[in-house]
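Is zinc ion placement plausible here? Inputs below.
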Amino acid sequence: MNNILIDDKEIKPSKVVCIGRNYVDHIKELNNETPDNMVFFNKPNSSISQELRFPKNFSSCHYEAEISFVIEENSISAVGFGLDLTLREVQSKLKDKGLPWERAKAFDGSAVFSHFVPFNDSVDDLSVELYINGELKQKGGVDLMINKPLDIIKEVRTFMSFEDGDILMTGTPSGVGKYVVGDIFVGKILKGDKVLVEARFETL
Ligand code: ZN
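Reply from A.M.:
I modeled the complex. Tokens:
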């Protein structure tokens, strides 16, 4: 089983729960429709990694930077930076046919996380930033989310349980794109102007 870290404590999440299409500007960049109901998909423990790798046997893969939370006792216990890696071309084909997205979203190494820090404060002014090779590529926060984190947790729990240590990824702002081996990613989670988490990944 794969681990994440809250400070120095190892946690083995059973799953990563992801919401799709949660920022209006990202919905527009992919020409998607705004959903009536929240759109969810899961990534299994086997998708979790603390290293950023380019998936084997594929020519292109997209990054999606997301504010990510650890859930314990149905509440947020920690916050970190996450990358929801997506084989966009595979996903587009599956979407067109109305098929499930696991091949595009749940492959090994597709859920990349920084360390997490304990968090029990208000989520309202949290935001995420992603820099690739020093250039700001993505920036967005809870203020721009269609569904706010506490509402997402409530909705998930109407049909699926959070095990302690599970992770919630809260969707990506605009600016998603392709990356290549050697790219240097720096991801940040901010509360207001204060950086809570900063992580650097070299693409392997
Ligand atoms: Zn995503």
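Short version: The mean pLDDT is 96.
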